[in-house]
Amino acid sequence: MDLYLRRWGLFVRWLIEVAPSERAFLEGFFLDIYTARAHLDGTVDAFIEEVLAFPYKQEPEDVQQFLDALLYHDTTDRRSPPPRSSSPAAVTQPLGRSSAAPSPS
User: Which residues, 6+ apart, have CB-to-CB distance to 60 below 8 Å?
Assistant: First the structure.
């Protein structure tokens, strides 16, 4: 996973945790996907209405689990992902590693 994709995944993971509603999540999620014109002309709002009406949605926990598997898969580090936090700083730690200096072996 390259740096851009990892940062995008961390953003989505964080957005799931802090968005106060499904609509708020979708509005934030689609900011980077659609152009300003699509937001201003109502295209994105219409799409959000369709998504909200879709009856077979994934649960947020399922999406989190999928993102955790992508973001924290590291064959050299078998530790579990960090606990979830609503702090944006907490989800910017690369691959779930602590910011503390590693202890000498």
Answer: 16
Amino acid at residue number 105: S
Q: What are phi and psi of 77, to 5 degrees?
A: -135, 105
Gap between the Cα atoms of 46 and 38, Å rounded:
10
CB atoms within 10 A of CB 13: 19
Instruction: Give the tens place of pLDDT for each residue, 30-55.
Output: 998 999 999 999 999 999 999 999 99
Which candidate, 98, 102, 66, 103, places its Cα nearest to that of 83?
98
Q: How far apart are CA 62 and CA 69, in angstroms?
A: 11
Question: Measuring CA to CA, which residue among 25, 96, 31, 92 is closest to residue 63?
Answer: 25
Q: Quote the pTM value.
A: 0.61
Cα–Cα–Cα angle for 69, 30, 47, rounded to 5 degrees: 115
Please, which residues have CB within 8 angstroms of residue 64's CB and are 6 or more apart in sequence?
13, 16, 17, 84
